[in-house]
Amino acid sequence: MRKLLAAVAVTALFAGPAFAEYPERPITVVVPFAAGGPTDTVTRLVAESMSKDLGQQVVVENAGGAGGTLGAGKVAQATPDGYTLLLHHIGMATSASLYRKLAYDPLNAFDYVGLVTDVPMILVAKPTFEPTDLKGVVDYVKANADKVNYANAGIGSASHLCGMLFMSAIKTKLTAVPYKGTGPALTDLMGGQVDVMCDQSTNVTNQIKEKKIKAYGTTTKTRIPALPDVPTGAEAGLPGFEVGIWHGLYAPKGTPKAAIDKLVPALQKALKDPVVVERFASLGTVPSSDADATPAALEAKLKSEIARWKPIIEAAGEYAD
């Protein structure tokens, strides 16, 4: 009740003409993961471009931990005045099933700004991994399930979700090796300490190009332009291996409509910024369209993804308290 009353008070305070000057000071975008990771990279590119349009600096703050739920919870409890935002990935949807207890309701604790990008995932392995193609990986993994491990950045991370999808697609359980972030996991993969990993193209494209790791297949319907030699899962004989790690921009519930109405066009403009488009392309992804960079599109995406991932997570039986 206290949160609701605070939201009503803030909305009333800023509903008048004075709020037309928004933003009057820097805006903070919370990334619920460590600095240097794929979501952090996406956020910093978009934030820099939005700063130019809004006339105020958009500052990125990393608040990692618990698969993104700590950072998301922090924003859910923030004053809904338009100066604290959240840029989160698909974990916003999966946390509803992965975590038995959440300090917030993913669907009802936030207002929506819009979708930012849908990043492809790629199944990769250490440079000395024996299989030469995805079919070989599947055969090898099934024959050596007790010996093969897969790295991820912890429960709720994109790499964890993609790993669950891969195991679901091949109907084989592997030993998970969780890390505190994608960076150390990728370092150990390149060093051969772990066998396989499934992560966002924004995080592994350069390492694939430099042949520091092996790439076996993408989770997309079509090949990634930045990696034209890497087949899709369907092309390589694994049609059920499809997922994109979509990212969305949120605000605390009760944020004044006047703020959202300025943030939406600023986001849309940033996603058409040539610098952002080019950098996204080099990382194997593309910005969301104007139609997707809207509150309605993000809300619809979140609802559909919660429904999609619930049975996958329940079947895997991997939960966090």
Overview of this protein structure:
- With 321 residues, the chain is of the alpha/beta class.
- The protein folds into 2 domains: 2-119 and 244-316, D-Maltodextrin-Binding Protein, domain 2; 120-218, Periplasmic binding protein-like II (D-Maltodextrin-Binding Protein, domain 2, 3-Layer(aba) Sandwich), CATH 3.40.190.10.
- Helix content is 41%, strand content 18%.
- The protein has 11 helices and 9 strands.
- The chain has helices at residues 2-14, 38-54, 69-76, 91-98, 134-143, 158-170, 182-191, 201-209, 257-270, 274-282, 295-316, and strands spanning 27-31, 58-62, 84-88, 110-125, 149-152, 175-178, 196-200, 214-218, 244-252.
- Strands 1, 2, 3, 4, 5, 6, 7, 8 and 9 form a 9-stranded mixed sheet that branches.
- Helix 6 links the parallel strand 5 (149-152) and strand 6.
- The chain is globular, with a radius of gyration of 20 Å.
- The relative contact order is 0.20.
- The model has no long low-confidence stretch (mean pLDDT 90).
